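Table 4 source record.
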Amino acid sequence: MKLDKIVATRADKTIYRDGDVIVKVFDKDKRKSDVLNEALNQARVEETGLQIPRILDVTCLEDGRWAIAMDYIPGKTLSQLMSEHPEKEDEYLEMFVELQLKMHTQRVPLLNKLKDKMYRKISETKLSATVRYELNVRLESMPKHVKLCHGDFNPSNVIIRDDGQAFIIDWAHATQGNASADAARTYLMFSLNNSKNLADKYLKLFCEKSDTAKQYVTKWLPIVAASQSVKGKEEEKEFLAKWIDVVEYE
């Protein structure tokens, strides 16, 4: 594979294009188990029939970096389209929510469970024992579902192909669990990107289309915010701390 055309760079990886193939090359300090788990997640989601890039190869390069090769999907991300055509924001948002709801109808029983991941993330935070306890109690009280959850469903992870077909990318955080937790995560991502108005519009539309009470989704926000705080991004700390205050939502 040729690694001379960079498509994007992220904190822990560089993404290349080689003809009809995208190659995601991870930094040397990326754990092998995380790379293999990401590839396995995506391969398992492939089997649902959802429109996502196919995994083509997983390999260790000569310099010791791990790489995942997959289909290249020609088109633009939904984030790009929303930026280029603000007058179509409502139309794109509706497409976005419909795609998420379709994903939530799928079952992938071999994926990790969302609740297990949340418990682990809460234990990794620097929150006080009291707050961790309250978060765990709240998490335990939430209904146990087994719906396919993306874990990072935002417009930059949806590619609209040239023929109008939508593809979901980046399945590193996929789990099976409660769809409202997935929606809470999406709401949080919009808010973190300074798109509070869009976040509120998204949540209203998701709740209407899924017949879900808004209060039910927001009950997940402290849990999801605590999980996000593990990443330790300074610019997010104050914002996330507000949502982690579980007492506010009792």
